[in-house]
Amino acid sequence: MIDIDRVRDDTPGTRDLVHLNNAGCALPPASVLETTVDYLRAEAARGGYETQRERAGQLAATYDSLAALIGARPAEIALADNATRAWDMVFYGLRLGPGDRILTCRSEYGSNAIAYLQQAARTGVEVRVIGDDDSGQIDLRELERELARPGVRLVSMTHIPTQGGLINPAAAVGALASAAGVPFLLDACQSVGQLDLDVAELKCDVLTGTGRKYLRGPRGTGFLYVRESAMELFEPAVLDNGSAVWTSPTTYEMSKDARRYETWEKNYAAVAGLGAAADYALSLGTAAIEARVLALGELLRRTLAGIDRVRVHDLGGSRCGIVSFTVDGLAPEDVKSALAAERVNVSVSRSTSSQWDLPARGLTGVVRASAHYYNTEQEIAYAGSLVERLVADNGPHDPRD
Question: Contact at 8 Å (CB) between 213 and 277?
């Protein structure tokens, strides 16, 4: 069980606000802040290259911690500036052409969908969006049928979408893709640090994650897992002298492990902070984190669903700490602004990030409130009371008034 008082003491931001925007950028614990700033101070005192050499062990430990977080080996981990760049390094390395097919889901994230569409225009690859089942998650029977057809080169999907609380059945998708001999690329941007993940159970060949969201790390950090047996399936999109060695005037040799997907230059202070964030999550236990976050998500969902004129829009048989909702008669941006005025942070997810999902449900945007384990039941009740007051203050008016 997580000691909530302790983790709140470790989180300075909880003293002044109710932060329900963890799906956007979570509040870091003090250890992440201290580790990052300490590294920057060392660079200022001794020089960047010199600090990198002196703290090689600390930087290498980040790979170990990230690997432990998802059940991987350190050699299967690569670092990136963000999750999208980590994802790009693999996806854009695929050699695709006419007759090839990519299978994805309706809840796919906008950046990934744009990449599919760009490759379709460039190469002639077909992008096939698998429909939802009755619960709103990816339809596994339809996926299995599509995998039986020729030409499938990749199954790629988002584990938890940006626009709601759905948890897609990634392990079941991975099992189907594995049985069909098709690589599986999993965008775990919202699930790393929120769910208890194991790449062996997920059966994914590639997994990408970010530091700034539920992992509570610095912005400008991301990472990539590539299964050792799948390393040769995905040629890196770009190479430099961090991912390969220039062995002769006309030859080069790629790194043997996942660092072939990295570039040489990094924000090493942020890398150190990312390692501290992974260590903090490991110290609490990812199973305990998942249980706490999912319970708070359900409490927030019930609280909002009980308010007149509030509609909760989360799909799926399994749901997480992200809750999407709208208030009849109010734009999502207005709800966000009203809550911000009371020092409650939420976000807005728009159709531009989810064109295959929100418009099909008649939505142009939703308010996104996302709980983390350091939030409290009292904070959720307070946020609910503010939404209820907002509804009352903006109720229907008699046109004769």
Answer: no
Question: Band of the pLDDT at 395, cuts 50, 70, 90?
Answer: confident
Cα separation, 37 vs 35, whole angstroms: 6
Q: 275 phi and psi, to 5 degrees? A: -60, -40
Quick: pLDDT tens for 327-385. 999 999 999 999 999 999 999 999 999 999 999 999 999 999 999 999 999 999 999 99
Sign of the alpha-carbon torsion through 260, 264, 270, 276: positive
CATH 3.40.640.10 fits 30-283, yes or no: yes
Tell me which H or E stretch contains 191.
Answer: none
343: left (phi > 0), else alpha (psi -120 to 50), else beta? left
Q: For residue 396, what pLDDT band results from cuts at 50, 70 and 90?
A: low
What integer is the mean pLDDT of 29-46?
A: 98
| Cα angle: 41, vertex 42, 43; to 5 degrees | 90
Termini Cα distance of the chain: 55
Is 70:225 a contact under the CB 8 Å cutoff?
A: yes
- The model's pLDDT over 90-100, given as tens digits with 9 standing for 90+, comes to 999 999 999 99
Return the pLDDT at 224: 97
pLDDT of residue 397: 45
DSSP E strand boundaries for 64-176 = 77-80, 101-105, 126-130, 152-158
Q: Left if phi > 0, otherwise alpha if psi is -120 to 50, otherwise beta: which for 309?
A: left
Residue 391's pLDDT is: 96
Domains 4-28+285-392 and 30-283 share a fold: no
Q: Smallest Cα–Cα separation from 393: which of 327, 300, 302, 301?
A: 327
Cα-Cα-Cα-Cα dihedral of 381, 21, 185, 121, to 10°? 130
CB atoms within 10 A of CB 135: 14
- From 218, 213, 194, select the one nearest 70 (Cα to Cα): 194
What does the longest C-alpha to C-alpha distance in the chain come to?
84
- Helix residue ranges per DSSP H, 243-376: 268-284, 286-305, 332-340
The residues spanned by each domain of the chain are: 4-28+285-392, 30-283
Angular region, 399: left φ>0, alpha ψ -120 to 50, beta rest: alpha
What 337-343 contacts at long range (C-beta under 8 Å, 24+ apart), as own/partner pairs, is 338/386, 338/390, 339/383, 339/386, 339/387, 339/390, 342/386, 343/16, 343/17, 343/18
Fold classification of 4-28+285-392 (topology level): Aspartate Aminotransferase, domain 1 (3.90.1150)
